[in-house]
Specification:
By secondary structure, the protein is mainly β. It has 2 helices and 16 strands.
Length: 233
C-alpha cells in the first residue's frame, strides 16, 4: 500500500510540473522589445537599417536578456531589459529620429536590428505604408542559406524598379493557397526596399518550386515573371 501511495504521489508531481495547475511557470513567447530610459521599443519586423551612416551615438547597453531567463508572466520589465539581445549589446540612436533606436546584430541585413518607441509613434512599415514613388533601390536576399542571408539581386535602374513594384502590386490575394511541400520546403527570400528614410522596408517572398507568393497582408500569388529578377547582381 505504501508503494502504491508513493507511486501516485510521484505521478501527481510529474503531472503538476507538466500542466502547472498550482502557479508553476511555463515558456513565455516574448515580443521583441527593448526598454530604455522609461520607454518601451518594439522591433520593426518589416524593416532594416538602410545604411550604417544613420547610426548615431551610443545611448546605452542591454542589462538583461529576459528570454530564456524569465518564466514568471508577472515579471515587470525594467530599464535595460531586452527580449532577445544579450547583456552588453550596444544601443544606438538613429540620427534625426528620436523615436527610433538600433542594436547591433550580426544576423540582420546591414548589421543592426531596429526598434520604434510604441509610446510615441505607430507602426508604419507595412507595404501599404510604403510610398512606391520613393523607392530608389531594391535588394533581394535568399534567406536561411549556410552563409546566412545571401544577396542575389540588386535592382537600381528606374525602369526595373518600377517593373518589380508593378509585379508586387499586381499580385492576387489567395487566402486559401497552400504551397507544395511534398518534395522540399519553399525557398525563402527577403526583399529590401530603399527610400531616403533610415529604415528600409523588408518583406518576405517564397517559392515552392512552381509558385511565387508573398504576404503583403494576406497571402498573395505573384507572377512567375518575378523570377527574372533573381540571381542577377
Amino acid at each position: 500500500m505504501k508503494k502504491i501511495s508513493m507511486f501516485l504521489l510521484i505521478l501527481l508531481f510529474l503531472t503538476g510540473c507538466r500542466t502547472m495547475p498550482f502557479g508553476g511557470y511555463g515558456v513565455i513567447d516574448w515580443v521583441d522589445f527593448v526598454k530604455l530610459d522609461g520607454k518601451t521599443y518594439y522591433g520593426i519586423h518589416s524593416g532594416v537599417l538602410a545604411d550604417q551612416s544613420f547610426v548615431g551615438e551610443m545611448i546605452g547597453t542591454v542589462k538583461f536578456k529576459v528570454a530564456d531567463n524569465v518564466t514568471n508572466p508577472n515579471y515587470k520589465i525594467r530599464n535595460g531589459d531586452a527580449a532577445f539581445h544579450e547583456k552588453g549589446t550596444e544601443i544606438f540612436k538613429i540620427e534625426d529620429h528620436p523615436h527610433l533606436i538600433a542594436l547591433r546584430s550580426e544576423h540582420s541585413i546591414n548589421g543592426y536590428d531596429v526598434y520604434y518607441s510604441i509610446d510615441e509613434m505607430d507602426y508604419q512599415w507595412r507595404f501599404k505604408d510604403m510610398s512606391l514613388v520613393k523607392v530608389k533601390k531594391i535588394e533581394i536576399y535568399q534567406a536561411y542559406t549556410r552563409e546566412g542571408n545571401k544577396r542575389i539581386a540588386d535592382i537600381s535602374k528606374v525602369e526595373e524598379v518600377k517593373r518589380f513594384l508593378h509585379l508586387l502590386e499586381s499580385s492576387e490575394i489567395q487566402t486559401t493557397f497552400q504551397p507544395n511541400t511534398e518534395k522540399r520546403d519553399p525557398t525563402y527570400y527577403e526583399m529590401i526596399f530603399y527610400t531616403e528614410d533610415p529604415i528600409a522596408y523588408k518583406f518576405n517572398m517564397q517559392f515552392d518550386g512552381s509558385t511565387y507568393y508573398w504576404h503583403p497582408w494576406d497571402t498573395a500569388i505573384l507572377s512567375n515573371d518575378i523570377g527574372q529578377f533573381l540571381y542577377q547582381e
